[in-house]
Amino acid sequence: MDEVRLDEETVTAVRRHGLPEAPVRLVLSHGNGLAIDAYYPFWSLLAEEFDLVVYDVRNHGWNAVGEQTNHNIPTMIHDHDVLAGAIAERYGDKPTVGVFHSLSTIVAILSFSDPYAGLVLFDPPFCKPAASESEFDDAADRATALTRRRATYFQSEEEFSDLLRYSPVYARVLPGVRDLLAMTTLRRAEDGEGSELRCPREFEAQVSEYVRSFAPLLDLSLLSCPTKVIGADPTLPYAYLPSFDLKHIRNVDYDFIADSTHLLQLEKPAECVAMLRDFLLQTGLLGGSTQ
Asked: Is it true that domain 2-283 has CATH number 3.40.50.1820?
């Protein structure tokens, strides 16, 4: 584990897994309120073939909780660029592909730099066809309201995991994933008895509330590297946010995982890995070619 300083008050824990000698590196991060370790059922399937680097967005996962005023997408874009540079400096320069989900896809698309040879973006918040701006705003409002009503304290990880069984958002995840989510998104409470959310609900809601301001800026045609968008099944009711329309992804390779929702990497990890590998092979990123 390495610590990367993002600013005077904030550091992020960066972890390296997989094969350091592999010719291709994958850098992975996660969605709002989650933690990259919760995606272990997905990225563990890549460990025998790739150099893997994983990190949590500020105020999530392994990271300490800082000031709420700094918990916003512009700051996360800055963090993304600092981390990309630090990873290349500490672990060596090689073809590197960013593999991101939901919130971290927004940050990657809006990055001020161009650090990656390719991008694989899982269910960015604009991949649902035939949705209007008002639908997007309504969905963002619902997501924010639900987050603000979340409990913040739990007697145990088991209590949290049991509660997830009643949430439609987690209805399709693989066996054991709810327990893993409890382990990775909770920390010991200050009273030493129970558990609390690693990313406070107010922080998660703040990002959810303002994501609508950034979604219209997600222009994939501006990306200079090969990009794959892998979405949830568009025939299912959206579990997170709809998009304005599919014109946002005309310039990239788009596909979806059948019978999956927004948490597709936790529902069908093998299918997600297969689609990622196919993209890397098709673009020459896997097999000796570079950007």
From this structure: yes
